[in-house]
Description:
Elements: E1 3-10, H1 22-31, E2 36-42, H2 46-57, E3 63-71, E4 76-80, H3 92-98, E5 103-106, H4 121-124, E6 130-135, H5 141-154, E7 158-161, E8 173-178, H6 183-192, E9 195-199, H7 205-216
Helix pairs in contact: 1-2
The protein binds zinc ion (ZN).
Amino acid sequence: MEQIKLDFHIHSHYSPDGNMKPILILEKSMSVGLDVIAVTDHNTTKGALEARNLSEQMDLDILVIVGQEVKTLSGEIIVLNIEEDIPKNLSLEDTINYGKGGFFIAPHPFDKFRQGIGEDLDLIKSKINAIEIFNSRTLLSNHNKLAGSYARLNKVPGIAGSDSHFQEEIGSSYFMLKSKKNINSVLKGIKENEIFIYGRQTGFKPHIKTSLIHFLK
Ligand SMILES: [Zn+2]
């Protein structure tokens, strides 16, 4: 089986703080060699559905997984493979129940500046499928390290996400996995196969741009 390259955390212009059209996400992702991406807008699957449909209609060589980054009372959680929008501001447990059958990831869990769920990870560690142990927008590298140790200690698979809101961020982090390029094989592979993380932090600049976009929208 071949090694494939994946990024499970990308925002489109359907996020209040992002500006990328789904077609641009597809173009840019293919240009940096990504095989699989999850589009994960804040509290909506609109961007992901559009990207997935475009990829299928145009028969592009990239697999799009439908995702959303849902705000809960504890912080944010990424839900993949559920098409319906999950209501925001539910408890973590209710969010997981609502998204039953989905694939759950704790993004930047120890980044307290950016809605990480922190210690509440303990409440759901048996129910989540992966922890984002490298997030390119995390400003303190310590936050990624804490996530990595937590994942190892609790035997939860660790993945990476660029948290891209702008095209120059796509490719800043990704993970590699032995898997076929279809959703079932990928999600099963995360559970069973070795995962290799590659990443760099994108620094302050994208954050400033994000606040500006949010302000201008
Ligand atoms: Zn995000």
